[in-house]
Amino acid sequence: MTEPKNDDVVREAVRDRYAEIARTGSPCCCGPTCCDPSSAAGDTTVSLARKAGHDESLKVGYTEEDLATAPEAANLGLGCGNPQAIAELKAGEVVVDLGAGAGFDCFLAARAVGPAGLVIGVDMTSEMVAKAREIAREAGYENVHFRLGEIEHLPVADQTADVVISNCVINLSPDKPAVYGEAFRVLKPGGRLAVSDVVATGGLPPEWRDDMRLLSACISGASTVSETEEMLREAGFVEISIRPKDQSREFIREWEPGRRLEDFVLSASICAKKPCRGSDVLAEETRCL
After folding, report:
1. pLDDT at 214 over 90
2. Cβ contacts of residue 28 below 8 Å, gap of 6+?
3. Cα(80)–Cα(174) distance, rounded to whole angstroms?
4. Per-residue model confidence (pLDDT) at position 48
5. Using 50, 70 and 90 to split pLDDT, how confident is the model at 278?
6. How far apart are the C-alpha atoms of 155 and 168, rounded to whole Å?
7. Rg (CA), the chain
8. For the residues of 98-147, what is the DSSP string, one character each?
9. Of 230, 213, 250, which is closest to residue 176 (Cα–Cα)?
10. In the predicted structure, residue 39 carries a pLDDT above the cut 50
11. What average pLDDT does range 138-164 have in this prediction?
């Protein structure tokens, strides 16, 4: 029997995979075999990979306008949805992105919040942070900051953010309750969580749970809808909404053809709010004046 992996082993496996993607500049998708960063050699290969990343982004919910707005190099095609579509960002807001990668969602958020707003992207992979900072510098983004850190221990002060977003990252964490607890901490009272992530729709095969390749590819770390709701509630969130998207079966099927991953996980939109007057306030009483 395979020994369960401890938290450090999980983080190292995830960090190694995304460091390689950052180094090669080769876009990918969340699945374990839909790309091979090590095969990206030469401008032609990277160009084709970026085209694939563009197409993957359209499948998960981004628009052509989104893709034209953000720097092309930031789109690594790693998402499983579009958190911008559910975040309802407003001018002047402060946004924190959990697992920002090369900054694609951060740059889209920066456009939405405008020069009076601020976007903070956090990622535990130094190669990704360096890549995101370089893209921001070259593209002239002044309202986007990238910080190195784990999403279980955010390098962000209490009550900083109006909105916390994330895209297909929380499933990678070996300590999801800590992630939601940190998201709650950094949100201002009345702030909101807007996450695209994968959720388990049934029991995953036991051998998948300790497969680092599947875990770092956004499969075997997925929690069920009920588990996710419980973690959010325990963190203090209210007005929780978790909506699995049946249409995501199409692109999840492509992550590893023939393995029927779509029978076990789906992409979901996950929304919640931090109460205005403390975590014990009932949802119907939490609207800010």
Report:
1. no
2. 21, 34, 35, 37, 49, 53, 76, 77, 78
3. 19
4. 47
5. low
6. 20
7. 18
8. ET-TTSHHHHHHHHHH-TTSEEEEEES-HHHHHHHHHHHHHHT-SSEEEE
9. 230
10. no
11. 98
Helix-then-strand count for the chain, H and E: 11, 8
> What's the rounded Cα separation, in Å, for the pair 77 and 104?
9
Q: Which domains does the chain have, with CATH numbers?
A: 7-277 (3.40.50.150)
Pair 286, 273: CB distance under 8 Å: yes
How far apart (Å, rounded) are the C-alpha atoms in residues 253 and 134? 34
Please measure the distance between the N-terminal and C-terminal CA atoms of the chain and give it in whole angstroms: 56
Q: 272 forms bridges with which residues in the sheet?
A: 193
Q: Are 5 and 210 in contact (CB under 8 A)?
A: yes
pTM: 0.87
As a whole number of angstroms, the distance between CA 76 and CA 53 comes to: 6
Phi/psi at 216 (nearest 5 deg)? -75, -5
Q: Provide mean pLDDT across the span 236-245.
A: 97
C-alpha 133 chain-centroid distance: 18
CA atoms within 13 A on the CB side of 245: 18
Q: How far apart are CA 273 and CA 238, in angstroms?
A: 5
Tell me if 211 sits within 8 A of 187, measured CB to CB: no
Residue 220: the pLDDT is 79
